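so i finally got all the pieces together for this one. its two components total, 297 residues if u count the protein bits. some of the lines might not be protein, just check the labels. i wanna see the whole assembly predicted at once instead of chain by chain like last time, that was a mess tbh
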Amino acid sequence: MRVLRQSMRGRVGAHDYPLEPEAAPAAFRGQVQLDPNRCRGDAACARVCPSGAITVEETSTGWIWQLDDSRCVFCGLCADACANRAVSLSNAFELAVRQPDDMVTRAEFIRNEETD
Amino acid sequence: MSTLHPLIPMLQSRQDEDASTLGQKFSDQVQRVLQRSMQIRHLDAGSCNGCDWEIQSLLCPAYDMQRLGLDIVASPRHADCLLVTGSVTRHLEIAAIRTWEAMPAPGIVIAVGACACGGGVLQGSYCTAGGVKNVLPVDISIPGCPPRPQALLHGLMLALDRIEQKLHHSNHEFRIGRSEA
C-alpha cells in the first residue's frame, strides 16, 4: 500500500542499493549472532538446528561454538531455543565471501569454575 | 491540501545529485574492467527455485541490474561469470562441468545460496555433491536462504573485483572487449 501511494504521487525509482547502503526491513532474519557473555555452552542451539549449521563441541577446558554460514537457512530456531538469549539473528545480509572458510564463525570458550 | 510525502523532496534531491556523481560509479567500474557490461549466466543445479527467483528479481524495475552494467545472457559461451544455485545433484554434475568448460577464460563461478555454498539442509545427502565447491572452482560464495537481491549485488561486486584480479595478475593473456592494438 505504501508503494502504491508513492507511485501515485510521483516516480518510484530503482533501489539505490550498491551506491548507497540499504538497511534490511524490520523482522528480517539475517546472520546468526552470539553474545559471548551469555553463552553457557548447553548446545540447545545446536540440537534444534535443522541443517547442522551450529555445532557445540565440548573440550577439556570449555566448549567451542561454531557457526557455518554455508549451511545456515536463517530459520531462527536457535534464537528461540536459547534459554539464555545468547543467540540472536542480526540484520546482516551482505555475507558474500571469497574463501569458503570465511563463512565459518568460531568461538572458543574457557569454562570459569567459580561462576558456572 | 495535504503536505507532500516526506520521500518526494528526498527523491528529487537524489535525482539531482546522482545523475552526475553517484549514479554511474558501479557501471563505470564495470566499463573500466571489462570495457563492456558484465555478462552473467545463471545455472540451476538442483535448487528449490528460491535463489532463482531472487536472481530473477534483479532484472525487475525495482532492482534493475542492467543500469549497473550487469546482464543475464542465454549461453555460457557469452558469460564472464556463472551463478550456480542448488547443491549440484548427481544428475546435474556433468551439466555443471560442461557449462563451466564452455565458458571463456577467465570464468568466475559464484555459488548462490546455502545449498550451493556448502550443501545447506541437503548436506550429506546421497544424491547431491554437497555444494558447488566439490564440483567446480568457486570464486565467490553468497550464503543466504535465499540471499536478498542486495546480497546478490554485493556478491557480484566482489566477482567484478575477482575478474580484475584474474585479468591483471595472471600469466595468461586474456582478450576481453575491444583490442587496443
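The CA atoms of residues 41 and 63 of chain A lie 6 Å apart.
The first helix of chain A runs from residue 2 to 9.
anyway lmk what u think
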